[in-house]
Amino acid sequence: MRFRSLFLLSISLFSGMTYAASPMQYPRCEKTLTYTLSLSGADVGYFQRNEHWKGQNVAITSYGQISLLITKAKIKQQSNIDWSDQDGHYLVRSFSRNITGMMSGNRSATFSPNGHKSTITIDGQSKNFIANNLPILDGDGIATQMRWDLMQGKTKFDFNMLNGDEVSHYYFAVKGHQIINTIYGKTDTIKVQQVAKDRTLAMWFAPSLDYQLVKAHYKRNLLSVGATLQKMNNGCPIESTL
């Protein structure tokens, strides 16, 4: 359960509305973000997210490793995401994920052109999903869409996330601005929190740092998991928003 929560937080780190501007108005660039992962305050691993932008498409490759006592697990994930002018939001085209060690396994998914249908294959077994209200996203798709929503000043969000072998509906809301300590010193951030009764997931995004996630904390019962930005290599000008 601990490994599952750590990886879900890592992967997630990170509507059919039409926005006033298209992301194509902003410069594309290469980005690499590295986070430390903690369990009850103790460092247990890292997670690295690499973004490669090309036109309206972003290919995201993520790597992570967690060590608990003598047990280790590694993850590698790749996602392909497009901006849709017609729908006014990002759509996931495909993703693949490989975990070795604890929770080992392979899974991959493809999505329909409008994102409302998806097929996931887990260790050779396939399952289909249909969502009529919102497109189905993976964790990278949610992270990409949420940053864009924050840039547009939105304060409430909800997403369909393809999570394991099911699609879950998640709700988030902005809880205001908060100044926190980061690797760049005291930084003004936007705090976003998941709306749920049985858990708390809080995330802090820094507008001055490309609206990137700089901190996250997940708590459920006695489980307390954290992620903190340790390094960011950004090929964009610091004022860039994508």
Structural notes for this entry:
The chain is mainly beta and 242 residues long. It has helices at residues 2-12, 139-151; strands at 30-39, 42-54, 57-68, 71-84, 89-101, 105-111, 117-122, 125-130, 136-137, 156-163, 166-182, 185-194, 200-206, 212-220, 223-234. Helices cover 10% and strands 60% of the residues. The protein has a 15-stranded mixed beta sheet. Strand 14 and strand 15 form a beta hairpin. The chain starts with a helix and ends in an 8-residue tail after the last strand.
State the oligomer. Answer: single chain
Helix/strand-derived category reads mainly beta
Number of β-strand runs: 15
**SSE run:** HEEEEEEEEEHEEEEEE
Q: What is the overall pLDDT average?
A: 84
Characterize the biggest β-sheet: 15 strands, mixed
> How much β-strand is present in the residues?
over 45%
Number of helices: 2
Neighbour order of strands in the largest sheet: 8-7-6-5-4-3-2-1-15-14-13-12-11-10-9
Helix content: under 10%
- Could you say which overall geometry the principal axes of the C-alpha atoms support? globular
Termini gap: 34 Å
Unreliable segments of 5+ consecutive residues: 1-8, 14-22
Overall radius of gyration: 17 Å
